[in-house]
Amino acid sequence: MSHGVAITITLQTPTEYGSTLEALEAAGWEIRDTTGSSFIREDATDSSDWLVFQSVTPENVRGIVATRDKLRQSAGVVLMYSGTSHGCNFLWIDRNTLVVSPSINRVELIGGWVDASWYLSRVCQPLLAGGCDVESVNLYEGLT
User: Fold this and answer.
1) What does each C-alpha distance from 113 to 7, 100, 102, 117, 137 come to in angstroms?
2) What is the residue range of 128's domain?
């Protein structure tokens, strides 16, 4: 059994996906996966239709995220924290809801528990600093 974590961030004011992505990138998150880029396909019909390890520029990924936002469709991208091998799936459900799932070389505490505070500080603080109107943050921890 492993420990799973999901962080759901609710924004009070609808915010373009690109604005939250820009705030995260300014704080050290990078559009990359272990080899290439991973993101929800531009023509996806649901949020589970990801392309993984693609040789695509960050600019192209930003464009796909922006297109899905304009169409009011969910969007997702893998971001890794600068200078580390730690990454997360970032999934925009809509302009008010961002779900973050630490999934790549997670920062862990003793016993294999995910260090949620590491992720919260590197996700929530940049969003606030970037002008996002965070209403609530919900943390789910469980055994998977």
Assistant:
1) 14, 16, 12, 11, 19
2) 3-143
pLDDT in tens, 79-132: 999 999 999 999 999 999 999 999 888 898 888 888 999 999 999 999 999 999
Q: Tally the domains of the chain.
A: 1
Note the pLDDT tens digit of each residue in 54-71. Answer: 888 999 999 999 999 999
**Nearest one of 62, 43, 40, 63 to 52, comparing CA atoms:** 40
Cα 127 from chain centroid?
12
Q: In 11-130, where does DSSP find H-type helix?
A: 17-26, 58-70, 116-129
Contacting residues for 135 by C-beta, under 8 A, at least 6 apart: 10, 11, 12, 96
Query: By C-alpha distance, which of 4, 7, 1, 11 is closest to 97?
Result: 11
Q: What is the pTM of this model?
A: 0.91
Q: How far apart are CA 28 and CA 81, in angstroms?
A: 6
CATH code, domain carrying 66 = 3.30.310
